[in-house]
Amino acid sequence: MQRSFRLKNLIFWELINPNDEEVLNLSKKLKIKEIDLRSSLAPEYFSEFIYEKNYLGFRLLYPLFLNKNIVFEKVGLFLAGKNLVILRKDDKEIRLIWDKTLNFWQKGKFKDGEFFLTLFIFNLLRRYLPLLKNFRHSLYNLEKSFHKEEPLRAIEYSSILRRNLVFSHTAINSILNMINQVIKTNIPLVKNHFDRWEGIQDISEFILQKIDDYEKILEGLSRSFETKLSLQINESVRFLTLIQALFLPAMLIASIYGMNIPLPLAQSKYALLILSLLMIATTLLFLKLIKRI
Questions:
Q1: Number of structural domains, the chain?
Q2: If DSSP states are collapsed to H, E and C, what string results for 175-199?
């Protein structure tokens, strides 16, 4: 779906789940490379800055919560003269970022496209902050459940959390690399709003550092749960070995006297009683020896 509208001195173009024809038409109309537009919604885990003679472009990752898993979608943002283009999927999260940026941009003193781009990236990064809160809460619950949860369940939960942290680390690290690249170019986009770009850089570094810290905490918790599971398995094996060992003397005597050959006491009328007492005595003696080990 494609729609456009004018606000102040900018023409906004929205391409929501665009088809090939819509991308091609807009590419010709605004002289933006078709490949740059098409790649904006490609399923790749990295953000990117595009600096061409006639336009600027950003491909940005933003987080979505799907049950226990966190997934990352891409949005494309392009500034070509007085035209500002967004290519996005039809989901609630990116629509919220877009609407919030548009409302703030209309109320602010800056009405140029460069400010809109800067503000959009800042608002998109702020959507990573609830992600940190979610990770912090998950780690707290995981640590709290150390003495309550079964280790297997805890390890399964921690593996999901680790997966989310790894993907988040990749996403935010990609955004930070992109921001550093933009700042180094020293283009008017940065010069005119340098303080804001420094703020964007700071918040991305903060998010990345927090994710690094959470990964280290999770690594320590995972080792604790794995150690606990290993101890439980060892204890179970020890118990089964003990049971097997206790019955071993009795099984040995029963096997010997089960053979069809002449044996001592075999013909005695007290054979069953004597052998039963012998089995009990050897089992108790064996149990006493095991306890000393």
A1: 2
A2: HHHHHHHHHHHCCHHHHCCHHHHHH
Residues 137-195: pLDDT tens digits?
Answer: 888 887 777 666 566 677 777 888 888 999 999 999 999 999 999 998 888 888 888 88
The residue range of the domain holding 50 is 1-126
Q: Could you tell me the maximum CA-CA distance found in the chain, to the nearest angstrom?
A: 114
User: Could you give the dihedral angle defined by the CA atoms of residues 248, 252, 258 and 264, in that order, rounded to the nearest 10 degrees?
Assistant: -140
pTM above 0.85, yes or no: no
| Domain end position, chosen among 79, 95, 126 | 126
| Domain boundary pick from 93, 126, 159 | 126
Residue type (1 letter), 278: L
| Residue of 156, 97, 160, 152 whose CA lies nearest to 127 | 97
Residue 46 forms part of a structural domain: yes
Q: Is 149 exposed, middle or buried (0-12, 13-18, 19+ CB in 10 A)?
A: middle
CATH of the domain at 47: 3.30.460.20
For the purposes of burial, counting CB atoms within 10 Å of the CB of 57, is it exposed (0-12), middle (13-18) or buried (19 or more)? buried
Report pLDDT digits (tens) over 219-266: 887 776 666 667 666 777 777 766 776 666 666 666 665 666 565 655
Residue 141: inside a domain: no
Would you say residue 183 lies in a domain? no
Q: What is the C-alpha separation between 166 and 150, in angstroms, rounded?
A: 24
Residue given tokens 């456009």 in the structure block: 4
Q: Which two tokens stand for residue 180?
A: 């550093």
Q: What is the dihedral of CA 156, 174, 77, 163, to 10 degrees?
A: 0
Indicate whether 8 belongs to any domain. Answer: yes
